[in-house]
Amino acid sequence: MKQENAGNADHVAAGQRELDTVYHPAHAAWLRQLKSFCPDYFSIIEEFGLGNLWQRPLLSAREKELIVFSTLITQGDAEIQIRQHVHTGLKRGMRVEEMLECVILLAVYIGVPRTLTAIHIIKSELESMQ
């Protein structure tokens, strides 16, 4: 049991590092506010998502970002999360050109409305960073 708790503590610490180093400060703060309202859901994000899944070594953080970024675009209605992953994608080594190339490729598979929205979000997020 103690070993499991130590593993959980490691995952929590890794999740906290991810929030502190790659997330946009406003989005990280928004997620942390969620902790007091629904701590179990926050734990899924911090401990399991960021602290476990994002720490797996087979895919690089940049590759994972490209996958997540693509899936968010395909889902539609994920503007806040797409904005966040423009930010984290850049911090994890993605280039803007790669994001746009991803959107261009997706246009054939998911259509113009979702990909045009994604381009608007990318452009808007980049402008807000300047």
From TrEMBL:
Domain Carboxymuconolactone decarboxylase-like: from-to ranges: 39-122
Key word Flavoprotein present: no
Pfam families in alphabetical order: CMD
Molecular-function annotations in GO: peroxiredoxin activity
SUPFAM superfamilies to which the protein is assigned, alphabetical: AhpD-like
Keyword Transmembrane included in the entry's annotation: yes
Domain of life: Bacteria
Residues that span the membrane, as ranges: 100-122
Keywords: Membrane, Transmembrane, Transmembrane helix
InterPro entries membership: 4CMD/NDH-1_regulator (IPR052512), AhpD-like (IPR029032), CMD-like (IPR003779)
Signal sequence interval, chain numbering: none
PANTHER family: 4-CARBOXYMUCONOLACTONE DECARBOXYLASE FAMILY PROTEIN (PTHR33570), CARBOXYMUCONOLACTONE DECARBOXYLASE-LIKE DOMAIN-CONTAINING PROTEIN (PTHR33570:SF2)
Protein name: Carboxymuconolactone decarboxylase-like domain-containing protein
Lineage, top ranks: Bacteria, Pseudomonadati, Pseudomonadota, Betaproteobacteria, Burkholderiales
